[in-house]
User: Which sequence fits this backbone?
């Protein structure tokens, strides 16, 4: 079981100092705890209760002897505090490491993986499972050393007593109880691992539903789904607590089981002690040592079930951490600076899982062409566009730009040459200025303002109370659709990339915004290779090249006039659009 965690001890490595401090104080604590009290009872207290002589001990000596108790507990308290403090410190640092690694991985995973998984569940893995792993690793690091030492201390005392006092038999009986007390630990551990995995899965479920619900707040109200959503969430939380209670059942049965076995041990010891004529202080010291054995066993039992819980969470984290990053930089990348933007699809096929989305696509979009991608919904237009920045990897064939396979370029080089304006641009919860700057983080303020003017964004930004320093709210919630789009266009201006991918908004904007956006776009596309996932006839008609998609294939290609005359699908799409727009 421990082997499972081995790769993750690297998180401990960088925190060696704090960990050693934790263990050092832990050992001190264990020694104080396991050995100190029995020693006091056996050797110090009897001095006070020795009634054989007269009361001749000076007051100072009596106080001194009595003071050993608080002194012992002071040492115990200080070491316990320092131990816990350093353990927690190691723990939070581990958590930081795990979370950062997890986050880093999320940045590079293929989009297809992220689309497949529920974001709420990915959230839960990053928050709840990494926290579980933290608590497990710290517990191993701490109790894994400390408790066996405490156990050894107490056992050592028992063995020592066995050899130095009469009634060795009694001691041996006590010792026999120790392995017995370990049995329930073993049994419970096996039960917990499976249940713990269920708990974390259910937690992911709850988190996924919460996340989904929050992102669909408008739909919930519009369709009157409040009741249904609450019921669904109620069921998920109920499944969670059912799973949690199963873990609780096993984990909580452990302590009473160990205690019961220990009680039987004490009874047996009493019987033996009576017949062996053991003295009270010897008996008490042995019982105390026995009790101090039981404490670490209990903790080790807990450690064991915690290990199992940790293993379950680790499994869920590794599901993401071990997911292969399929889209990576090539070993020997081609030198790429500024591309011209001559895009070619050479017999490209692509499938999401088993369902093919593009079949044997061949197309050439010469540099500087404005190319509209047209076709019914689901025909493969977005997939086609997404293959250019290598968001997905072609299953067969190759996508080349200026004759260089995109797989031979560094991802950063490739993507620096591409600007993206999506249907619903995402803004970060930051100032407008910083959101614009994302187009090119090295840009000077003057360049940002120029881009903003070109995108017709400057006017409305100036009118906001804080101008460019206005915070836009989560996902840009404080701006209108048209404003967000103009910011996205300004970003694309700033990027000055030779290739532009434009996912045209389907939803109509208010006419002022619409005119501004259209004008901004017209300027933006000038001189670039542009792929437009087009929904508007005006855009389509203005494009110098049109690719017609149907069921994953390009079924026709040409300009508006020739396609309208020769292609039935194009004609019907166009007529439908002009009829409704
Ligand atoms: P369009 O942009 O023309 O509407 P898409 O390229 O989005 O079409 O989709 C092409 C096909 O691939 C469709 O059948 C769609 O259902 C499927 N598809 C798109 N995205 C995914 C995805 N992330 N996972 C699985 N299937 C997808």
Assistant:
């Amino acid at each position: 079981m421990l082997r499972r965690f081995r790769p993750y001890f690297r998180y401990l490595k960088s925190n060696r100092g704090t960990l050693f401090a934790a263990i050092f104080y832990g050992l001190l604590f264990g020694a104080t705890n396991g050995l100190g009290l029995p020693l006091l009872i056996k050797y110090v207290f009897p001095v006070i209760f020795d009634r054989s002589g007269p009361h001749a001990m000076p007051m100072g000596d009596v106080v001194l002897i009595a003071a050993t108790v608080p002194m012992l507990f002071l040492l115990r308290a200080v070491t316990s505090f320092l131990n816990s403090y350093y353990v927690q410190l190691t723990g939070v640092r581990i958590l930081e490491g795990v979370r950062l690694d997890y986050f880093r991985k999320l940045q590079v995973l293929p989009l297809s993986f992220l689309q497949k998984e529920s974001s709420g569940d990915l959230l839960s893995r990053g928050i709840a499972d990494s926290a579980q792993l933290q608590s497990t690793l710290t517990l191993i690091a701490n109790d894994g050393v400390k408790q066996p030492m405490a156990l050894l201390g107490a056992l050592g005392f028992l063995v020592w007593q066995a050899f130095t006092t009469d009634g060795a038999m009694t001691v041996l009986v006590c010792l026999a109880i120790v392995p017995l007390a370990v049995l329930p630990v073993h049994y419970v551990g096996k039960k917990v691992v499976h249940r713990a995995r269920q708990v974390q899965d259910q937690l992911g479920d709850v988190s996924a539903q919460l996340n989904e619900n929050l992102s669909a707040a408008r739909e919930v109200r519009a369709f009157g789904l409040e009741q249904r959503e609450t019921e669904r969430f109620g069921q998920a939380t109920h499944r969670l607590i059912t799973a949690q209670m199963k873990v609780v059942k096993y984990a909580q049965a452990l302590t009473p089981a160990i205690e019961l076995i220990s009680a039987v041990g004490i009874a047996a010891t009493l019987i033996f002690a009576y017949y062996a004529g053991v003295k009270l202080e010897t008996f008490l010291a042995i019982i105390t040592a026995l009790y101090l054995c039981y404490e670490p066993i209990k903790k080790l039992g807990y450690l064991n079930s915690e290990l199992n819980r940790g293993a379950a969470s680790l499994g869920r984290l590794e599901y993401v951490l071990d997911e292969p990053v399929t889209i990576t930089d090539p070993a020997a990348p081609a030198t790429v600076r500024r591309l011209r933007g001559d895009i070619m699809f050479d017999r490209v096929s692509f499938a999401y899982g088993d369902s093919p989305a593009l079949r044997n696509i061949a197309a050439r979009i010469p540099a500087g062409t404005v190319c509209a991608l047209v076709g019914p919904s689901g025909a493969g237009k977005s997939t086609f566009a997404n293959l250019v920045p290598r968001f997905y990897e072609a299953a067969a064939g190759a996508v080349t730009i200026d004759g260089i396979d995109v797989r031979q370029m560094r991802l950063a080089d490739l993507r620096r040459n591409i600007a993206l304006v999506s249907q619903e641009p995402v803004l970060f919860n930051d100032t407008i200025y910083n959101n614009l700057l994302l187009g090119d983080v090295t840009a000077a303020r003057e360049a940002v303002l120029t881009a903003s003017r070109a995108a017709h964004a400057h006017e409305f930004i100036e009118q906001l109370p804080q101008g460019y320093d206005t915070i836009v709210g989560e996902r840009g919630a404080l701006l209108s659709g048209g404003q967000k789009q103009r910011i996205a266009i300004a970003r694309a201006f700033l990027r000055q990339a030779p290739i532009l991918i434009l996912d045209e908004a389907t939803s109509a904007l208010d006419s002022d915004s619409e005119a501004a956006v259209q004008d901004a776009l017209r300027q933006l596309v000038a001189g670039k290779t542009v792929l437009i996932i087009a929904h508007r006839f005006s855009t389509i008609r203005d494009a110098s090249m049109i690719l017609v998609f149907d069921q994953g294939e390009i079924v026709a290609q040409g300009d508006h006039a020739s396609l309208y005359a020769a292609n039935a699908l194009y004609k019907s799409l166009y007529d439908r659009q002009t009829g409704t727009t």
